[in-house]
Structure to design on (488 residues):
């Protein structure tokens, strides 16, 4: 009898906490105004996704996205505050107003467009399937009977889940390090990931070399913003456009991707 | 109230959740049964078994009890392939849970054995039982009975700890919650559901272990 009372109390307490959490959120002021008045721009950046974002030997964040975040903060005349995120939690960070912008090699899709707004593209990016040279894969159909590793929630996960043949096994890892480790340790035969991730693995000259097999999607990176922030969106788009014409964006691309920006970006 | 609950995805993702529940239950049952058997073996070695085997078993127990479960799991899944031992994520998860519970239950069961009055060993010898028979027929059951609540708790802890197997892409309840969260962006609902599943399963598991205790152990006069 006593145990039942305890359980029902536990449920009541849980419900009470849930009700508190579900209470009204404070009404948000215009995001651009609040960035300027607080004097800092909070940006979600990747922590495990070189060359877009990683932690250097000096423990400081570095990468394409970090340089982009610094550039935008500079142009807004505020300080930048980098918030390290994973590819699975970067949108929740924006939804819960823990950051102002997501500059985290974010791709665009209709589901995401329902919950966040996107700037114009700021970085080239494509996803494909990569596997050692010996493995004969030319298209999605060739994945039949094979094991492919992806990072859960990433765009290649969503795309591959739709198009992969039923006999292909998709293994979903928590972050890119998991996906890379799974490939290098032979737990998966192929990985679906970005061009830059494969390039970063190749740079380390591993025994298993991820060679590009086929393209899943060309999806340049966009900056994610909260819904309905026209002032901030216009400002960010303006900064990106200037950076494209004055060559500062090209400099970032050459520094981190080793190539200049493609003409169609 | 600005937050509107949306559980409409539950029908689309029902199979993912059911599979997750199945994997968590499977991991728990296999881990609990094999882990406790391993624990009994190790406890026997550390108390009554051959002297020669005691140092390696002690080393195993210390190694497992003083390192994080997640590192043990990663070592088996990502590390062992380097020396040619390739295990699937479920095999790796099962193995990690067995060796983890094996070490903890060894120490719990050892406490039960060591609390056995000397007279019981002498009684076994007086009945002309060999040492192993004495252990199996006279010592073990009362020893387990003494530590059953602690052992039950350890099994529940290991079940809850199984949540980290989603890190190696084993598709358990936590994987299902993360999967739904990254597809629907309904984090609140997805984790609310997974919390409820773990809570109910933990309560059910505890009840089951209590019932098993009543069933396995002979009734004794209340002390």
């Amino acid at each position: 009898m006593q145990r039942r009372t305890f359980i029902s109390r536990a449920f009541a307490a849980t419900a009470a906490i849930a009700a508190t959490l579900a209470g009204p959120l404070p009404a948000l002021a215009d995001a651009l105004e609040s960035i300027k008045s607080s004097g800092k721009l909070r940006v979600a950046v990747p922590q495990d996704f070189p060359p877009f974002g990683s932690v250097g030997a000096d423990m400081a964040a570095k990468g394409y996205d970090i340089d982009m975040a610094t550039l935008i903060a500079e142009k807004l005349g505020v300080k930048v505050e980098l918030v390290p995120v994973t590819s699975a939690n970067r949108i929740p960070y924006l939804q819960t107003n823990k950051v102002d912008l997501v500059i985290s090699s974010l791709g665009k899709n209709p589901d995401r467009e329902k919950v966040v707004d996107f700037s114009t593209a700021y970085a080239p990016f494509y996803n494909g399937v990569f596997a050692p040279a010996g493995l004969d894969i030319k298209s999605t159909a060739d994945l039949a009977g094979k094991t492919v590793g992806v990072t859960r929630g990433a765009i290649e996960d969503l795309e591959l889940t739709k198009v992969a043949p039923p006999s292909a096994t998709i293994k979903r890892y928590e972050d890119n390090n998991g996906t890379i480790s799974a490939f290098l340790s032979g737990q998966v035969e192929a990985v679906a990931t970005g061009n830059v991730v494969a390039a970063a693995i190749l740079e380390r000259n591993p025994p298993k070399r991820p060679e590009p097999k086929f393209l899943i999607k060309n999806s340049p990176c966009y900056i994610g913003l909260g819904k309905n922030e026209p002032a901030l969106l216009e400002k960010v788009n303006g900064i990106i456009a200037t950076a494209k014409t004055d060559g500062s964006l090209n400099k970032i691309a050459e520094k981190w991707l080793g190539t200049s920006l493609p003409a169609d970006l | 109230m600005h937050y509107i609950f949306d559980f409409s995805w539950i029908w689309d993702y029902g199979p993912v959740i059911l599979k997750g529940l199945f994997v968590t239950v499977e991991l728990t049952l296999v881990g609990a049964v094999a882990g406790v058997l391993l624990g009994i073996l190790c406890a026997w070695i550390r108390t009554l078994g051959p002297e020669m085997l005691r140092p390696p078993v002690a080393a195993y127990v210390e190694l497992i009890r003083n390192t994080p479960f997640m590192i043990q799991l990663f070592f088996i899944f990502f590390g062992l392939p380097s020396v040619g031992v390739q295990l699937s994520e479920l095999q790796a998860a099962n193995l990690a849970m067995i060796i983890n519970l094996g070490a903890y239950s060894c120490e719990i069961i050892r406490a039960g054995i060591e609390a056995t009055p000397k007279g019981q060993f002498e009684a076994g010898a007086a009945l002309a039982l060999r040492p192993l028979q004495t252990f199996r027929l006279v010592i073990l059951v009362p020893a387990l009975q003494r530590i059953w609540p602690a052992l039950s708790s350890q099994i529940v802890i290991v079940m809850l700890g199984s949540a980290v197997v989603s890190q190696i892409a084993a598709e358990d309840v936590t994987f299902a919650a993360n999967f739904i969260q990254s597809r629907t962006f309904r984090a609140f609902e997805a984790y609310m559901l997974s919390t409820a599943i773990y809570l109910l399963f933990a309560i059910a598991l505890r009840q089951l272990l209590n019932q098993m205790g009543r069933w396995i152990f002979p009734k004794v006069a209340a002390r």
